Amino acid sequence: MKIFCIGRNYVAHAKELGNDVPEEPVIFLKPKSALLQTHTPFYYPEFTNELHYETELVLRISKNGKYIQERYASKYYNGYTVGIDFTARDIQNDLKAKGLPWEKAKAWDNSAVIGKWIDIKPELNKKDINFCLYKNKELVQQGNSGQMIFSFDNIIAQISNYFSLNIGDLVFTGTPAGVGECVVGDDLEGFIEDESMFELSVK
Questions:
Q1: C-alpha distances in angstroms, 53 versus 107, 129, 147?
Q2: What is d(CA 41, CA 87) in angstroms, rounded to the nearest whole number?
Q3: Cα diameter, the chain
Q4: Which residues, 6 or more positions from 125, have their beta carbon under 8 angstroms from its beta carbon?
Q5: Residue 34 phi/psi, 5° resolution?
Q6: What does pTM read for this prediction?
Q7: Which of 37, 106, 156, 174 could form a disulfide with 73 if both were Cys (CB 3.0 to 4.6 A apart)?
Q8: Residues whose CB falls within 8 Å of the CB of residue 96, separated by 6 or more in sequence, listed in order
């Protein structure tokens, strides 16, 4: 199982971190070990002093594929949820300044959190999915799939040009503006529309 992540997929988020708006999806990966398992506590990693949450819509791959055309891409995923791409921001900033890969800041054990799955139905308007994150019961981040630079189907097509997609893979589709820091003791709860999809405490 692979975890694909899309960076800078919302204009406001790219700008808030001082990045250029990309002309094609920024793709990076997390390994299987990055996925926080159900009922497993989340611990603040010892190697960072600036842990950030990035709330994202996540797709569940349901069909193997390679070189997928965009018009057929919707046949390759069958569920969505909301998750967090946890980022060691201090480490990422240092790596970016040196022109080095981001894996140490992004791909560490338990850095990917997902909520419960919603099955995709034909009537779903994939350009109008609202999601948000509450920290200690206060709204800190919110987005809408219609704000994405690259749509679900475009992301799937672009990923498949470089990597084979396999059943069980996950795709984190990018985070909107509003990313921020969390510390030990914080409670994080992710929503799609008005439904709570996950809740965790930083230990």
A1: 14, 20, 19
A2: 17
A3: 46
A4: none
A5: -75, -20
A6: 0.95
A7: 156
A8: 102
